[in-house]
Amino acid sequence: QRLGVLHVGQRIEEQADFEKIYKNAWADNADACAKQYAGTGALKTDYTRTGKRTPWGLIMDGWNSLIRYYKNNFSDGFRQDAIDLFLGNYSVDEVEPASPLHVKKDWKFLALPIIMVVAFSMCIICLLMAGDTWTETLAYVLFWGSASFGTFAIILYNGKDFVDAPKLVQKEKMD
Question: What is the pTM of this model?
Answer without folding.
Answer: 0.58
